[in-house]
Design brief:
heterotrimer, A alpha/beta, B alpha/beta, C alpha/beta, A: alpha/beta, four-stranded parallel beta sheet, C: alpha/beta, Rossmann fold, six-stranded parallel beta sheet, four-stranded mixed beta sheet, 7 helices, globular
Chain lengths: ~250, ~525, ~200
């Protein structure tokens, strides 16, 4: 099984530790992981702004980079949602459809494909608020959203429950969007920031010391909000926790 | 604190004696406790708050695109309003959850409701003809209006032919869409809104900000100010009970003396020709049962085939809207009272065209419950008037551009596309996916700002060329000093104004990989 | 002009008909969510919607539990044989004339256990407006007339037969000012259901 590691541009530029943790974790699980060196981005900034034509070349590059692999794995629900649901600016050849189908977000890859039962190396003795990225939650179905009347489940919390010492705290608005929203954060900064302030206030009030998420983009926004408000929360990606980060 | 402290009722002579009874039933239930229903509670009056002027809605400049963000920023600058708005609507969302989770077949009901609507819309011509025939057989006059202006003209003709001078009406988003009140202002016929929230908005000369709760963006102090100016209430008394009662007492004479009554329509039943309205105040029933002439304005998409289909929709509507199992009044108007006249005005106003829009026609399934607004984190923090359109919030983002693509071109971008709206929609409209689809349509038709499209073009050019991308995110891989331009377009630094910038790591993942994992890595030869 | 609009609207609808089949779904009969005691369920549901429920009074005074309200009222309009009232609804020619009614008494055609609703048509109300213009509404409901849920209610023929049919679930209510719940927004300030079997006049 050959895995192509996709490191989203935000992770590449701002959170290299998340990429490293993802790579190391997959290798620790005995997988053959390659990082296609010419990768850039999934095209989401353009498509989410409506600019599909402008995303076409980036999407084509993504497919070219990842076509050779059995699976594509990325530590981002948002980018995987883009690839799976919205990578449509280029002709849907067999190769394109294939890449879209075999692209997985790290949590679902561990939970659904590899069905990992334990992370014996992982210990995180802290109070943690889990943040669901909206695309991860409602787009690729990481968990049962609070709006839906169905038996609850949560893939990320399932995985985190296998980490020693971790304590998950409850938020008053667990599924509320944090306001990042990709380019929304830049084009509607006032509402975006207010949503972020409310989110980090909720996390702090719940007694969390750390916020864990499968998406660095939301956390980059939240971290910026928390620092501005002077809220002493720390943000860490689920890949790092599962890889045994000692915090 | 005694009951008396909480209820300063003795101001002025406007209050009905009932409200001064020792145990006031407007706020107390059978067992003497404060009212607490599914949808809300009769809270004790809070301590006086600092007066905060009400933020107003989006600036309307003809056909120019609405700047929702600008209006939202002003709403956020009024923290008392913003917090009250957010809390009230989030409370409704929570009540909706409790209510929905109490129904094991909830998701099945949504699916069925969605399918019934899809079915009806796919045969809308046939069902409209059936509805019309049944209505006529029941003695109802049926009119067809092509658009809002047509609707207003038809209603005016009906009123004039009866010599009507006053009309009481219940809340109707359709008549808002038609600009009915504004149009009638010039006609010499007095229009009185009888829904409390809508009446507040009428008296304040403002549009409703929410489909179900028109004045939800106002505090009680705002209402006290409006009523003091227009109804002559005590400007210092902002007790909600006092204000509501003042409205009741001043509206009642209008209801009794009205020449005509008007309602909107929640559901129109094809097989029986029935119009169904769902209200909590009973004001649609007053409008329909007191004046000698009644008019029901009906959007053509409101049709459902059979009475028994109501068994699905009524179970969903109020639970989605307010969390209550049903509205206080569910009213079925089928024929005129003896000696009176009943008219239906079937209004198209763009609906038949929308039916042909492959990606957007399912927005016609909307039953106007407002659940998408209540759950929308952007709406709750912006206020409904920031959208500058008849329909605010998520449903507005996908409906408004069908009325005016240029003016409302910005609205589909006032969303994080988080998808909560889609999940609460009782008729399963894929709202957030339609927001996404609208962005594509608007970009293709060059209805988005040139700057934005230019940025995306530049981003696409950089992101599709690895070398350019590497150059953009840092001149040296080991020292990323600036934010990449595709991430944060920076002339105004909109990111950094409100948030701290992310730290620049020592090196990118790419550089780390090259250094540590590629051939020659051990030599630490970083190029 | 309207005829032209009608034709144009229908033509546009036909032209723009959405693709696909879209059959009318079968609606299954859902298992009732209320327990077998429909009266208890009805009572609880109506109270949650701000309504009041009382038992029938003792023999000779079936409306005994609302006696205080009736005695305090100057004008009582009754549409039921169980109480005479002092305003004859059948003699009312204009709905506006019932604006001074303090208490109206009507019988519900049926009740709904799921929601605590009661149904009236023009036959029960005599003057439709009295159910809104009166200050208070007293509703007689035969416990045997309670159907299990909304779905069952809409399978009844009452809706197709009446010119006006209305489900009341508690009194007139609003929460339009800061979400503060208030009864008597425009219609009745209270709604009290008396659980009284039909025909049980008990020598009133």
């Amino acid at each position: 099984m050959r895995i192509g590691l996709f490191v989203p541009c935000y992770v590449d530029a701002f959170e290299p530790e998340v990429g490293i943790a993802t790579l190391e974790l997959l290798e620790r699980l005995g997988l053959d992981v390659a990082y296609p060196f010419d990768q850039t981005c999934c095209g989401q900034p353009m498509t989410n702004t409506g600019c599909h034509a402008e995303a076409a070349a980036t999407e084509a590059l993504f497919v070219k980079n990842f076509a050779p692999f059995d699976y594509v794995v990325a530590p981002s629900g948002s980018c995987v949602h883009q690839v799976r649901e919205h990578l449509t600016a280029i002709p849907q050849t067999e190769e394109v459809v294939g890449v879209r189908r075999k692209t997985f977000e790290l949590v679902e890859f561990l939970h659904d494909v590899l069905k990992i039962e334990e992370f014996p190396w992982a210990s995180f003795p802290h109070k943690v608020a889990y943040h669901s990225n909206c695309n991860a939650l409602r787009g690729i179905h990481h968990a049962r959203p609070s709006e839906i009347v169905a038996p609850p489940y949560s893939k990320p919390l399932d995985l985190l429950s296998k980490v020693k010492g971790i304590e998950i705290v409850s938020l008053t608005r667990p599924d509320e969007c944090c306001g990042f929203g990709g380019t929304f954060s830049v084009f509607e900064p006032a509402v975006s920031a207010k949503m972020g302030y409310d989110k980090v206030t909720d996390q702090a009030r719940a007694g969390a010391a750390y916020v864990v998420s499968a998406d660095s983009s939301c956390m980059m926004h939240q971290k910026g909000c928390a620092e501005r408000l002077g809220v002493p929360l720390k943000y860490i990606h689920i890949a790092q926790v599962l890889n045994g980060a000692a915090a | 604190m005694s009951i008396e402290d909480l209820t300063p009722r003795e101001t002025g002579g406007m209050i009905h004696p009932e409200v001064r009874a020792p145990v006031d039933e407007s706020e107390r239930h059978q067992d003497g406790g404060r009212l607490q229903h599914a949808e809300a509670a009769s809270k004790p009056i809070a301590a006086p708050k600092t007066r905060e002027p009400q933020p107003r809605g989006a600036k309307i400049r003809g056909n120019r695109p609405i700047d929702q963000g600008e209006a939202a920023e002003r709403f956020l600058a009024a923290p008392l309003h913003q917090a009250a708005h957010d809390e009230r609507l989030w409370d409704l969302r929570k009540k909706r959850d409790v209510s929905a989770h109490g129904i094991p077949e909830w998701e099945e009901l949504r699916e069925i409701a969605s399918s019934i609507k899809a079915h009806t819309l796919s045969r809308l011509d046939t069902y409209l003809e059936q509805f019309e025939a049944a209505a006529k057989a029941n003695g109802v006059h049926v009119h067809w209006a092509a658009d809002g202006a047509d609707h207003n003209r038809i209603v005016l003709e009906i009123l004039r032919s009866h010599g009507a001078r006053t009309l009481v009406k219940s809340k109707s988003m359709l008549t808002e869409e038609c600009g009915f009140r504004h149009h009638m202002a010039a006609s010499g016929i007095e229009i009185i809104e009888t829904d409390l929230g809508e009446r507040i908005q009428q008296l304040d000369n403002e549009e409703p900000s929410h489909i179900v709760a028109p004045a939800v963006h106002k505090t009680r102090m705002d209402v006290a100010e409006v009523f003091a100016k227009t109804l002559g209430t005590d400007p210092d008394n902002d007790d909600a009970h006092y204000l509501a009662e003042s409205q009741r007492e001043t509206t009642r004479p209008y209801i009794l003396n009205a020449d005509a009554g008007m309602t909107g329509c929640n559901f129109a039943i094809a097989e029986t020709g029935t119009v169904v309205t769902c209200t909590n105040e009973g004001n649609a029933d007053l409008s329909g049962n007191v004046p000698p002439l009644q008019i029901h304005s009906i959007g053509i998409e409101k049709i459902i085939p059979r009475i028994e289909d109501l068994g699905v929709f009524i179970r969903l509507l109020s639970r989605s809207a307010l969390g209550s199992p049903i509205t206080q009044y569910t009213s079925h108007f089928r024929g005129p009272r003896p000696g009176t006249e009943m008219h239906y005005v079937l209004v198209d106003n763009g609906r038949s065209e929308r039916l042909g829009m492959e990606e957007f026609w399912t927005s016609l399934k909307c039953i106007r419950c407002g659940a998408c607004m209540n759950t929308c984190p952007v709406y709750r923090r912006s206020g409904g008037l920031s959208y500058g359109a008849t329909y605010a919030g998520p449903i507005g983002l996908i409906i408004d551009p069908t009325f005016n693509k240029r003016k409302y071109s910005t609205l589909p971008f006032s969303s994080t596309m988080n998808g909560s709206c889609t999940n609460v929609c009782p008729v399963k409209i894929n709202i957030h996916e339609q927001i996404f689809a609208w962005r594509k349509v608007l970009a293709e038709e060059h209805q988005i700002p040139l700057l934005k499209q230019g940025m995306m073009k530049a981003a696409g050019a950089v992101l599709s060329r690895p070398a350019a991308y590497r150059a953009a995110i840092g001149t040296a891989d080991s020292a990323l000093r600036a934010l990449p331009r595709f991430a944060v377009y920076n002339p105004l630094n909109t990111w950094g104004k409100k948030r701290e910038m992310p730290d620049a790591p020592k090196q990118s993942f790419h550089a780390w990989y090259k250094q540590n994992r590629m051939a020659g890595a051990a030599k630490k030869d970083v190029s | 002009m309207s005829a032209g609009t009608r034709a144009a609207t229908l033509a546009a609808i036909r032209r723009n008909r959405p693709a696909g089949d879209h059959p009318l779904p079968q609606v299954p009969v859902f298992a009732p969510l209320v327990a077998d005691d429909h009266v208890a369920a009805f009572t609880e549901a109506l109270k949650r919607m701000g309504g009041r429920v009382v038992e029938a009074g003792p023999a000779g005074d079936p409306l005994g539990h609302v006696r205080e309200r009736l005695d305090a009222a100057k004008v009582v309009a009754s549409a039921v044989p169980e109480h005479a009232g002092n305003r004859d609804l059948s003699a009312v020619t204009r709905p506006q004339a019932v604006d001074d009614v303090d208490v109206a008494i009507v019988r519900a055609r049926f009740g709904i256990a799921e929601t605590g609703s009661v149904l009236f048509t023009e036959a029960e109300l005599v003057v439709n407006a009295v159910a809104y213009l009166a200050q208070h509404l007293v509703v007689l409901l035969d416990p045997a007339d309670i159907v299990v849920n909304v779905q069952a209610a809409y399978k009844r023929p009452d809706f197709a037969g009446a010119a006006y049919a209305v489900l009341h679930t508690g009194p007139s209510a609003t929460a339009d000012i800061e979400g503060v719940l208030i009864h008597g927004a425009q219609g009745v300030r209270s709604l009290t259901v008396v659980l009284l079997p039909r025909g049980d006049v008990r020598a009133a």
